[in-house]
Amino acid sequence: MTAQKKEKKTSFPSPKGMRDIIDEEYYAYQGLFEKAQEVAIYYGFKPIETPILEKEDVFTASVGEGTDMIDKEMYTLKTKGGDHLAMRPEGTAGVMRSYIERGMQSLPQPVMLYYSGPFFRHENTQRGRFREFYQFGIEILGAEKSIADAIIIRTTVTILSDAGFENMILDINSIGDKECRPAYLRELVSYYKKHSDVICSNCKDRLRINPMRVLDCKNPKCSPLKESAPDSISYLCHDCKAHFKEVLEYLEEMGISYRINKNLVRGLSYYTRTVFEILEMPNDKKEDNKSAKKEAEMVTASAEIPEVEQEILTPLVIAGGGRYDYLARALGSKKDVPSVGSSIGMDRIILSPNHKKLSPRILKKPKVYFIQLGFEAKLKSLSIIEILRKARIPTMQALSKDSITAQLGTAEHLAIPYVIIFGQKEALEGSVLVREMEKRSQESVKIEELAEYLKKIK
After folding, report:
1. Can you list the pairs that 182-187 forms with residues at least 24 positions away whose Cβ atoms lie under 8 Å?
2. According to the model, what pLDDT value does residue 407 have?
3. How many angstroms separate the most distant Cα atoms in the chain?
4. Pairing of strands 168-174, 111-120
5. β-sheet bridge partners, residue 84
6. Residue among 247, 392, 232 at smallest CA distance from 321
7. Is the pLDDT of residue 123 over 90?
8. How far is 359 from 365, CA to CA, in rounded Å?
9. What is the bridge-based pairing of β-strands 111-120 and 46-47?
10. Are 85 and 76 in contact (CB under 8 A)?
11. How many CB atoms lie within 10 A of CB 332?
12. How far, CA to CA in Å, does 214 sit from each of 50, 121, 261, 336?
């Protein structure tokens, strides 16, 4: 016990909120990525990988002041050369930076991209929320039509469904554009200033810097105010209202249930028009979810955007996104690039009890364990393993071990059905022993015939 305590004090643990991903957990992430990638490719997306480190301005110019990501959570550093860099806290800004820098405006539009990898935010850690976290994202750049919003939502929902999620709710809202949002913001600020004596200090700052962020406040003190706050849908201009109406029509045509959440704004400043989140309903809320879905199905995209009053549930957000038509100009483009995208929280997916484990395509469970005995056998062992690799026969081994008992014990522990035994005698004869572990039977096989023999018995 004392030795264990001492070891803990002298070890170097991983930073808080960051962790190692190994073995089966690693394969779970890989399997989820491959499934998401497969769905994205079928819908027409192509891959992109952006740097983990970006110029700090990429995020401060696009995400905006008054957001927790910029004010509290972003990891920044100054290089020896004086550059101010940031570890990417989200993916969209980097993708748009690449779109502009690489001249993708000259490609046939829209440009549809997918990506995956680690992102970093210094926030309070809890189950499913880490400081190094993994996301899968999709973006459609250069598309102003509402069908692009629908494609993003359809693709995201399909990925989640294929990953085992059936009990989901899509929250959606429209926060308008530069034409109609100013009038809404004036009403929102006026409303909150009337209650300035009861709102939290963060919201007082947000009212001054980024007013819409007050609706994203999680402080219980501010929650009652949100229910009676002005809603953005009531202030939509004709074009924004028509766009949102079309998005809802696409969702209904695809059979995707939704509910309009007038307080949904998302946490980043670059969003315009459509914003959405996909929430995993707790298992004990299934009946509530059925009720919400039934109510959502009654929403029809008539001439006016419908108003829906629904019970506020507390599920977990597993994906979200929206439209960002002005992001390109904030990053130096001379013209706007209407775009829309979403991201999926892979950590929350993996940790969810509803997650259906998806095995990586390249991963094949080993059916053969290779055992060697003696130096002569060890010299030739790698050549035999290479024969098996070329024949696409997955093999486990512990060539560093010398004891046959230890090697057989490992094979039994891993439940590998066949064992190849290669000793001094077999090395001289150019053969191996193939043992079937369950029957305890074995047969001598020539090395040149080994691959075909194993293919027949698999």
Report:
1. 183/235, 184/230, 184/232, 184/234, 184/235, 185/211, 185/212, 187/230, 187/235
2. 82
3. 92
4. unpaired
5. 78
6. 247
7. no
8. 10
9. parallel
10. yes
11. 12
12. 31, 21, 15, 27
CA distance 97 to 137: 15
Task: Give 428's contacts (C-beta < 8 A, 6+ positions apart).
Answer: 376
Q: Mean per-residue pLDDT for 179-201?
A: 87
Strand order in the sheet with 84-87: 53-55, 84-87, 76-78
Q: Hey, CA dihedral for 244, 248, 249, 254, is it positive or negative?
A: positive
- pLDDT tier for residue 170 given thresholds of 50, 70 and 90: very high
Distances (CA, A) of 236 to 106, 228, 266: 32, 18, 17
- The three-state (H, E, C) secondary structure of the chain, written as one string: CHHHHHHHHHCCCCCCCCCCCCHHHHHHHHHHHHHHHHHHHHCCCEECCCCCEEEHHHHHCCCCCCCHHHHHHCCEEECCCCCEEEECCCCHHHHHHHHHHCCHHHCCCCEEEEEEEEEECCCCCECCECCEEEEEEEEEECCCCHHHHHHHHHHHHHHHHHCCCCCEEEEEEECCCCCCHHHHHHHHHHHHHCCCCCCCHHHHHHHHHCHHHHHHCCCCCCHHHHHHCCCHHHHCCHHHHHHHHHHHHHHHHHCCCCEECCCCCCCCCCCEEEEEEEEECCHHHHHHHHHHHHHHHCCCCCCCCCCCCCCCCCCEEEEEEEECCCHHHHCCCCCCCCEEEEEEEHHHHHHCCCCCCCCCCCCCCCCEEEEECCHHHHHHHHHHHHHHHHCCCCEEECCCCCCHHHHHHHHHHCCCCEEEEECHHHHHHCEEEEEECCCCEEEEEEHHHHHHHHHHHC
φ/ψ (deg, to 5) at 346: -70, -35
Structure tokens at 86: 């940031």
Burial state string for 221-240 with b = 16 or more CB within 10 A and e = fewer than 16: ebeebbeebbbbbebbeeeb
Percent of the chain at pLDDT > 90 equals: 44
The pair of structure tokens assigned to 280 is 């995993």
19-74 pLDDT per residue, tens: 888 888 989 999 999 999 999 999 999 999 999 999 998 988 876 665 566 666 88
- Over residues 138-148, mean pLDDT: 95
Q: What is the model's pLDDT at position 149? A: 96
- Residue 74 has which token pair? 């972003």
